[in-house]
Each structure stands twice: as structure tokens, then as C-alpha cells.
Amino acid sequence: MTLTKSKYYFEALDNYPYSLPDCLEALNYALSYDPEDADSLCLMGRIYSEMLTDYERAKMYFEEAMQCNVSNLNTPLHYIKCLLDNEDLDEAEKLINYALKIKGIDKSRILIQKSLLFEIRGEYKKALEPLKEAKKYSYNQNMVDFLKSRSKFIKNKMVKTKKSKK
Question: Whole-prediction pTM value?
């Protein structure tokens, strides 16, 4: 990472998501200095996924970021979210399984995505298992509280599903 590129990348990151024109300008500069920078490509993917909901274009940037640096810790989490939002569930499951093997990745956040995958599929019992496992990798009270609230939310969905079947 060159100092010039990092300046533009951090400028883009600082402007995201509050000032997209400034973010995009800095991001384009960053990518012109290093078109294979995984973090810059990931941020571009986030813009297309989270702001523009152009999932196909976002997937293109995320895939490129993964090819440029397969061990990048930022890309899998955002790529998984994009895949889930676009209902590419099989791809998301493969990426989740891969991401859990990356050394240093925040496993609790990946496991939350795994739980969401099962929830989207309507497999509520299965959705609770990754949340239990995520507690092992949670190192602050906010995350533990979040996991408890997600578990409670899913359990409430299970009760409503059972009542509607009767």
C-alpha cells in the first residue's frame, strides 16, 4: 500500500456513506493508483450493494476484491451481506464456510450472517445454532446483548409460525 493510495482510500472511507460524491471521487483516485487493492474494491462493492442496490455490479467488485486478496478480512462480511440481500443463498453459504476458515476474521459477525441465511430459508431452529456459537467469539457486552436479542427475535418467529400452521 503506497502512502498516496492510502490517503485516498482513507478519505473515501471517511466520506462513506455520508458524502457519496466525495467518497467516489477519492475511491476512484485510490483505484487509479492501485486497481487491485482489495479494500478499495470492497468499498466500491459496498456502494453498489448498500447504497445503489445494484447487486450484480456489487458482486463483480466483491469477486475482484476476493481474487486480489483472498485473505482480506473486510471483503467476506460485506460480500456475504450482498449475496443474502440478492437471495444468492447457495453462494452465500459457500462464502460463509470459507470465511470462517480465514485467520483473524471476526467469526461472531460471520456466524450472525450464517444465522440470517438459515432464517431467510425459514430454518429457524438451525438459525439459533450459529448464534449460540457466536457467543464463544464475542468479546464485548454489546455483541452478547445483540446475540440474545436476535435469538429472542427468531424464537418469536418460530412461535408465530407454529400458531399460523394450526
Answer: 0.91
